Amino acid sequence: MLVGASDVTRHVGRSSSGLRERLRDATSDAHRELDAQLSAFDLTGVSGYCRFLHASAGALLPLEAALADAGVDGIFPDWPERSRSAAIATDLDRLGATAAAMVSVPPLTRSGVFGTMYVLEGSRLGAKFLLKTVADAADPRIGAATLYLRHGTGKRLWQNFLSKLESEVCDEAEVIAAARVAFAAFDQAADRA
Ligand code: HEM
Predict the structure, then answer these.
(1) CB under 8 Å to 10, separation ≥6 — which residues?
(2) If you classify domain 5-9+17-192 with CATH, what class do you get?
(3) Which tens digit of pLDDT belongs to each residue from 133-182?
(4) Which residue in 72, 169, 184, 187 has the most C-beta neighbors within 10 A?
(5) Has residue 15 got a pLDDT over 50?
(6) Ligand 1 centroid, distance to 119 Cα (angstroms)
(7) What would the 3-class secondary structure string for 7-27 be?
(8) What residue segments make up the domains of the chain, in order of their start?
(9) Buried b vs exposed e over 106-139: b needs ≥16 C-beta within 10 Å?
(10) 129 CB under 6 A from ligand 1?
(11) From ligand 1's centre to the CA of 65, what distance in Å?
(12) Cα angle at 81 between 7 and 111, to 5 degrees?
Protein backbone atom coordinates (compact mmCIF):
# COMPACT_ATOMS: atom_id res chain seq x y z
CA MET A 1 0.00 0.00 0.00
CA LEU A 2 1.47 3.34 -1.02
CA VAL A 3 -0.81 5.60 0.91
CA GLY A 4 -1.48 5.17 4.60
CA ALA A 5 -4.12 6.60 6.89
CA SER A 6 -2.08 9.71 7.69
CA ASP A 7 -1.68 10.56 3.99
CA VAL A 8 -5.40 10.21 3.46
CA THR A 9 -6.08 12.55 6.36
CA ARG A 10 -3.66 15.10 4.94
CA HIS A 11 -5.13 14.98 1.44
CA VAL A 12 -8.72 15.02 2.63
CA GLY A 13 -7.95 17.87 5.05
CA ARG A 14 -7.43 20.45 2.30
CA SER A 15 -10.94 20.15 0.89
CA SER A 16 -13.64 22.81 0.41
CA SER A 17 -16.65 23.75 2.54
CA GLY A 18 -20.38 22.94 2.64
CA LEU A 19 -22.13 19.59 2.67
CA ARG A 20 -19.14 17.83 1.14
CA GLU A 21 -17.01 18.97 4.08
CA ARG A 22 -19.56 17.71 6.58
CA LEU A 23 -19.75 14.39 4.72
CA ARG A 24 -15.99 14.11 4.78
CA ASP A 25 -15.87 14.85 8.51
CA ALA A 26 -18.71 12.44 9.28
CA THR A 27 -17.01 9.60 7.41
CA SER A 28 -13.32 10.26 8.00
CA ASP A 29 -13.01 7.58 10.72
CA ALA A 30 -14.75 5.04 8.50
CA HIS A 31 -12.48 6.01 5.60
CA ARG A 32 -9.35 5.62 7.74
CA GLU A 33 -10.48 2.18 8.94
CA LEU A 34 -11.27 1.05 5.42
CA ASP A 35 -7.92 2.27 4.18
CA ALA A 36 -6.20 0.26 6.93
CA GLN A 37 -8.29 -2.81 6.10
CA LEU A 38 -7.57 -2.61 2.38
CA SER A 39 -3.89 -2.09 3.12
CA ALA A 40 -3.82 -5.70 4.28
CA PHE A 41 -4.37 -6.92 0.71
CA ASP A 42 -1.19 -7.37 -1.30
CA LEU A 43 -2.23 -5.78 -4.57
CA THR A 44 0.97 -6.84 -6.32
CA GLY A 45 0.04 -10.55 -6.18
CA VAL A 46 -2.85 -12.15 -8.08
CA SER A 47 -4.43 -13.69 -5.00
CA GLY A 48 -4.34 -10.47 -2.93
CA TYR A 49 -5.51 -8.38 -5.88
CA CYS A 50 -8.33 -10.82 -6.54
CA ARG A 51 -9.42 -10.63 -2.88
CA PHE A 52 -9.37 -6.84 -3.12
CA LEU A 53 -11.58 -6.93 -6.23
CA HIS A 54 -13.89 -9.46 -4.57
CA ALA A 55 -14.27 -7.22 -1.53
CA SER A 56 -14.85 -4.12 -3.67
CA ALA A 57 -17.39 -5.89 -5.88
CA GLY A 58 -19.11 -7.35 -2.81
CA ALA A 59 -20.10 -3.82 -1.78
CA LEU A 60 -20.16 -2.05 -5.15
CA LEU A 61 -22.69 -4.39 -6.78
CA PRO A 62 -25.44 -4.07 -4.14
CA LEU A 63 -24.81 -0.32 -3.72
CA GLU A 64 -25.07 0.30 -7.47
CA ALA A 65 -28.18 -1.91 -7.62
CA ALA A 66 -29.77 0.15 -4.82
CA LEU A 67 -28.89 3.34 -6.72
CA ALA A 68 -30.46 1.98 -9.91
CA ASP A 69 -33.60 0.95 -7.99
CA ALA A 70 -33.82 4.48 -6.56
CA GLY A 71 -33.73 6.02 -10.06
CA VAL A 72 -30.17 7.32 -10.03
CA ASP A 73 -30.23 7.73 -13.82
CA GLY A 74 -32.96 10.38 -13.45
CA ILE A 75 -30.71 12.37 -11.08
CA PHE A 76 -27.38 11.68 -12.80
CA PRO A 77 -28.11 11.29 -16.54
CA ASP A 78 -24.48 10.22 -17.02
CA TRP A 79 -25.04 7.22 -14.70
CA PRO A 80 -24.10 4.70 -17.43
CA GLU A 81 -20.69 6.40 -17.53
CA ARG A 82 -20.39 6.27 -13.74
CA SER A 83 -21.46 2.70 -13.05
CA ARG A 84 -18.52 0.36 -12.45
CA SER A 85 -20.30 -2.98 -11.86
CA ALA A 86 -19.55 -4.18 -15.40
CA ALA A 87 -15.91 -3.06 -15.16
CA ILE A 88 -15.24 -4.92 -11.92
CA ALA A 89 -17.05 -8.03 -13.18
CA THR A 90 -14.81 -8.01 -16.29
CA ASP A 91 -11.66 -7.63 -14.16
CA LEU A 92 -12.66 -10.59 -11.97
CA ASP A 93 -13.61 -12.62 -15.01
CA ARG A 94 -10.15 -11.99 -16.51
CA LEU A 95 -8.68 -13.42 -13.31
CA GLY A 96 -10.94 -16.47 -13.51
CA ALA A 97 -13.25 -15.27 -10.70
CA THR A 98 -16.82 -14.06 -10.41
CA ALA A 99 -18.17 -10.82 -8.96
CA ALA A 100 -20.91 -11.26 -6.37
CA ALA A 101 -22.75 -9.07 -3.87
CA MET A 102 -21.62 -9.81 -0.31
CA VAL A 103 -23.80 -7.46 1.69
CA SER A 104 -27.34 -6.18 1.50
CA VAL A 105 -28.15 -2.49 1.62
CA PRO A 106 -31.47 -0.76 2.36
CA PRO A 107 -33.51 1.10 -0.29
CA LEU A 108 -32.39 4.68 -0.91
CA THR A 109 -34.26 7.96 -0.78
CA ARG A 110 -33.20 10.77 -3.16
CA SER A 111 -30.94 12.19 -0.43
CA GLY A 112 -29.63 8.69 0.18
CA VAL A 113 -28.64 8.53 -3.49
CA PHE A 114 -26.38 11.55 -2.94
CA GLY A 115 -24.76 10.07 0.18
CA THR A 116 -24.11 6.77 -1.58
CA MET A 117 -22.77 8.52 -4.68
CA TYR A 118 -20.44 10.57 -2.48
CA VAL A 119 -18.76 7.38 -1.25
CA LEU A 120 -18.66 5.62 -4.61
CA GLU A 121 -17.42 8.66 -6.53
CA GLY A 122 -14.89 9.42 -3.76
CA SER A 123 -13.54 5.89 -4.00
CA ARG A 124 -12.17 6.86 -7.44
CA LEU A 125 -9.70 9.15 -5.64
CA GLY A 126 -8.35 6.21 -3.65
CA ALA A 127 -8.30 4.08 -6.81
CA LYS A 128 -5.81 6.48 -8.36
CA PHE A 129 -3.38 5.74 -5.53
CA LEU A 130 -4.04 2.01 -5.59
CA LEU A 131 -3.23 1.94 -9.30
CA LYS A 132 0.31 3.07 -8.48
CA THR A 133 0.74 0.00 -6.26
CA VAL A 134 -0.79 -2.25 -8.88
CA ALA A 135 1.62 -0.82 -11.47
CA ASP A 136 4.46 -2.47 -9.48
CA ALA A 137 2.91 -5.90 -9.98
CA ALA A 138 5.14 -8.18 -12.02
CA ASP A 139 2.26 -10.48 -13.05
CA PRO A 140 0.77 -9.18 -16.34
CA ARG A 141 -2.64 -10.69 -15.44
CA ILE A 142 -3.03 -7.96 -12.81
CA GLY A 143 -2.34 -5.10 -15.24
CA ALA A 144 -4.88 -6.63 -17.62
CA ALA A 145 -7.58 -6.52 -14.92
CA THR A 146 -7.62 -2.85 -13.93
CA LEU A 147 -10.79 -1.58 -15.62
CA TYR A 148 -12.33 -0.90 -12.18
CA LEU A 149 -9.36 1.05 -10.82
CA ARG A 150 -8.91 3.03 -14.05
CA HIS A 151 -12.60 3.64 -14.59
CA GLY A 152 -13.55 7.25 -15.42
CA THR A 153 -9.96 8.48 -15.67
CA GLY A 154 -9.84 11.93 -17.25
CA LYS A 155 -13.61 12.46 -17.06
CA ARG A 156 -13.93 14.83 -14.07
CA LEU A 157 -16.66 12.61 -12.60
CA TRP A 158 -15.75 13.55 -9.01
CA GLN A 159 -15.71 17.30 -9.69
CA ASN A 160 -19.04 17.15 -11.54
CA PHE A 161 -20.53 15.10 -8.73
CA LEU A 162 -19.45 17.72 -6.16
CA SER A 163 -21.04 20.56 -8.21
CA LYS A 164 -24.30 18.64 -8.33
CA LEU A 165 -24.13 17.85 -4.60
CA GLU A 166 -23.65 21.50 -3.69
CA SER A 167 -26.59 22.63 -5.85
CA GLU A 168 -28.98 19.97 -4.55
CA VAL A 169 -31.36 20.65 -1.67
CA CYS A 170 -30.88 17.52 0.42
CA ASP A 171 -31.99 16.16 3.74
CA GLU A 172 -28.51 16.39 5.20
CA ALA A 173 -29.05 13.74 7.89
CA GLU A 174 -30.19 11.29 5.24
CA VAL A 175 -27.22 12.05 3.01
CA ILE A 176 -24.79 11.44 5.86
CA ALA A 177 -26.58 8.30 7.05
CA ALA A 178 -26.44 6.82 3.54
CA ALA A 179 -22.73 7.65 3.23
CA ARG A 180 -22.09 5.81 6.50
CA VAL A 181 -24.10 2.81 5.26
CA ALA A 182 -22.02 2.76 2.06
CA PHE A 183 -18.72 2.84 3.96
CA ALA A 184 -20.04 0.10 6.27
CA ALA A 185 -20.90 -2.02 3.22
CA PHE A 186 -17.27 -1.82 2.01
CA ASP A 187 -16.04 -2.53 5.53
CA GLN A 188 -18.21 -5.67 5.83
CA ALA A 189 -17.32 -6.90 2.36
CA ALA A 190 -13.59 -6.43 3.10
CA ASP A 191 -14.04 -8.46 6.30
CA ARG A 192 -15.70 -11.26 4.37
CA ALA A 193 -13.39 -11.34 1.35
C1 HEM B 1 -6.66 1.89 0.45
C2 HEM B 1 -7.59 2.45 -0.22
C3 HEM B 1 -7.80 3.93 -0.30
C4 HEM B 1 -6.91 4.94 -0.29
C5 HEM B 1 -5.42 4.84 -0.22
C6 HEM B 1 -7.66 6.16 -0.37
C7 HEM B 1 -7.11 7.40 -0.46
C8 HEM B 1 -7.81 8.57 -0.62
C9 HEM B 1 -7.23 9.87 -0.81
C10 HEM B 1 -5.75 10.18 -0.85
C11 HEM B 1 -8.24 10.76 -0.94
C12 HEM B 1 -8.14 12.26 -1.16
C13 HEM B 1 -7.84 12.52 -2.62
C14 HEM B 1 -7.87 13.98 -2.99
O15 HEM B 1 -8.38 14.83 -2.23
O16 HEM B 1 -7.37 14.28 -4.08
C17 HEM B 1 -9.48 10.01 -0.82
C18 HEM B 1 -10.71 10.56 -0.86
C19 HEM B 1 -11.86 9.85 -0.69
N20 HEM B 1 -11.98 8.48 -0.60
FE21 HEM B 1 -10.48 7.18 -0.45
N22 HEM B 1 -8.98 5.86 -0.44
C23 HEM B 1 -9.09 4.50 -0.40
C24 HEM B 1 -10.22 3.78 -0.47
C25 HEM B 1 -11.47 4.31 -0.50
C26 HEM B 1 -12.69 3.54 -0.58
C27 HEM B 1 -12.76 2.03 -0.73
C28 HEM B 1 -13.70 4.43 -0.50
C29 HEM B 1 -15.17 4.20 -0.52
C30 HEM B 1 -15.73 3.04 -0.62
C31 HEM B 1 -13.13 5.76 -0.41
C32 HEM B 1 -13.85 6.92 -0.33
C33 HEM B 1 -13.30 8.17 -0.42
C34 HEM B 1 -14.07 9.39 -0.40
C35 HEM B 1 -15.58 9.51 -0.24
C36 HEM B 1 -13.17 10.43 -0.58
C37 HEM B 1 -13.51 11.92 -0.68
C38 HEM B 1 -13.24 12.62 0.63
C39 HEM B 1 -13.50 14.11 0.47
O40 HEM B 1 -14.66 14.52 0.51
O41 HEM B 1 -12.53 14.83 0.28
N42 HEM B 1 -11.78 5.64 -0.42
N43 HEM B 1 -9.18 8.69 -0.65
Answers:
(1) none
(2) mainly alpha
(3) 998 888 999 999 999 999 999 999 999 999 999 999 899 999 999 999 99
(4) 72
(5) no
(6) 8
(7) HHHHHHCCCCCCHHHHHHHHH
(8) 5-9+17-192
(9) eebbbbbbbbbbbbbbbbbebbebbbebbeebee
(10) yes
(11) 21
(12) 70
